[in-house]
Design a protein that fits this description.
Order of helices and strands: HHEHEHEEHEHEEHEEHHEE
Helix content: 25-40%
Shape: globular
Distance between the termini: 22 Å
Number of strands: 11
Number of helices: 9
Strand content: 25-35%
Structural class: alpha/beta
Radius of gyration: 18 Å
């Protein structure tokens, strides 16, 4: 796992990243009937908070120190928190009915993570891989150009994760899972200028304060907002998607 990608971004990540719809959590409960779940790559706990609404027992696994501090402050008294990488969680064998990974799967060593999932899942346990996917529109296309200009790890509308051929639909259905269920729902977010800037600064590829061209990067993001806002707000379209599967 790329454990340091979000060092220095935990607070802004927790404040500005979108959450996940209740419909997804209800669907996971219905499809898995799991009583205990582990959220791996839990970050600051945005998805962990969602799981707590419906699941009896929740464990969160996160390796990054900055993210872990926010996670503990957010949900520490309600979940079991483990500092560990996704590929070596240190959790007991055969413990969980469901593993969730929200907005983090693309960072993992996928073969090693698969083995770890098989080790800690109960018989017939399942893995849910979840993303909030930004839909491309005029706002997104314009901000993409700003990111391509200033952010070296950002390429043509996506972040370079080291898995250049990764495709959730093809990879998860054909290579990772033996049986796959699929969920997709709109999850649009209305943002103020502060929220829009914060969301973009929370991204793994975004410049940090003190980086060369940071001020120019923020100024151009502000110009994007100014160009497209209506009454001080922009709507950013998202789809929440989930692949839920059993392993081969």
């Amino acid at each position: 796992m790329n454990e340091d990608k979000f060092t220095g971004k935990a607070e802004i990540y927790a404040k500005y990243r979108p959450s996940y719809p209740d419909e997804l959590i209800d669907w996971l409960v219905e499809k898995t009937q799991a009583e205990n779940v582990v959220d791996i790559g839990a970050g600051t706990g945005i998805f962990t908070e969602c799981l707590l609404k419906k699941f009896k027992s929740v464990t969160a696994v996160e390796p990054n120190d900055d993210m872990l501090k926010v996670l503990i402050n957010s949900v520490g008294d309600r979940v079991n928190i483990v500092k560990a990488p996704a590929e070596a969680t240190t959790l007991d064998n055969g413990q969980f009915g469901l593993i969730t990974v929200a907005q983090a799967f693309h960072w993992f060593d996928k073969p090693k993570f698969k083995k770890e999932c098989q080790r800690i899942l109960k018989q017939n346990g399942m893995l849910a891989v979840i993303w909030n996917e930004r839909v491309q529109n005029d706002v997104a296309n314009t901000r993409n150009k700003v990111c391509m200009k200033y952010c070296g790890a950002y390429h043509s509308g996506h972040v370079d994760t080291g898995y250049k051929d990764f495709d959730g639909e093809t990879f998860l259905r054909n290579e990772y899972f033996s049986e796959t269920k699929y969920f997709r729902v709109e999850n649009n977010v209305t943002m103020t200028k502060e929220h829009f800037i914060g969301d973009n600064l929370s991204r793994s590829y975004a410049l940090k304060e003190g980086d060369e061209n940071y001020s120019n990067f923020v100024n151009e993001l502000e110009n994007v907002f100014d160009q497209f806002n209506k009454d001080g707000l922009v709507e950013i379209p998202y789809f929440t998607t989930c692949y839920l599967g059993n392993f081969k």
